[in-house]
Amino acid sequence: MSIKKNLRYTIKNRFRGFYPVVIDVESAGFQSKTDALLEIAIVTLKMNKLGWLNIDDTLHFHIIPFKGSIIKAESVAFNKIDPFNPLRGAVSEKKALKCIFKLVRKKISLNDCKKGILVAHNANFDHNFLMAATKRAGLIKNPFHPFTTFDTAALSGLILGQTVLAKACKIAGIPFDTTQAHSALYDTMQTAYLFCELVNRFKRLGGWPPKISHRKKTDEI
């Protein structure tokens, strides 16, 4: 394989200059502007010289609820997080995001990309919480795209016929332990494995690199 051909097998070329970062958050409700962010985890990705996408680095933080935030009993009962447990080792939103953004910027630079792009299962939820926390923390330089995401729920529905993370992983041949679900780190790791499988499956099927169509134009009726 020539060097020129190998250049196609980069994250930069695969995702139009965007660097995908898998994220999951756990919260004390569904409203990103008012409900507390309790956990956040990210997984960065890498691509080998043959174009296969793999997991790279991880970061995980327990978060101190921001001042005045709402903590809904049904939400913490569901994710089994005690926001005020001193053993959590929680940090402020600002400290967690500064560490995350530093790593993401490093990966963007290493892969010659222009911006990070959030990958998540039901991505709108995680994206909203990330953006709201960034605004609260007063961090002006956010390395993530302000609105575009890769949603593994939508991708899984299209490719696997399942939109629930546990079920999509099962269809894709990825182990999923329901007793560990709703931990930000565990869900992020499984989502990362799922995203890599979806991208790599498309490549195995011959969908990447795209084939240029040479079909002759015909007159439309």
Automatic annotation (TrEMBL):
Its cofactor is Mg(2+). It is an enzyme of class 3 (hydrolase). It comes from the Bacteria. InterPro entries: Ribonucl_H, RNase_T, RNaseH-like_sf, RNaseH_sf. Its EC number is 3.1.13.-. One of its GO terms (cellular component) is cytosol. Gene3D superfamilies: Ribonuclease H-like superfamily/Ribonuclease H. This is Ribonuclease T. It comes from Buchnera aphidicola.
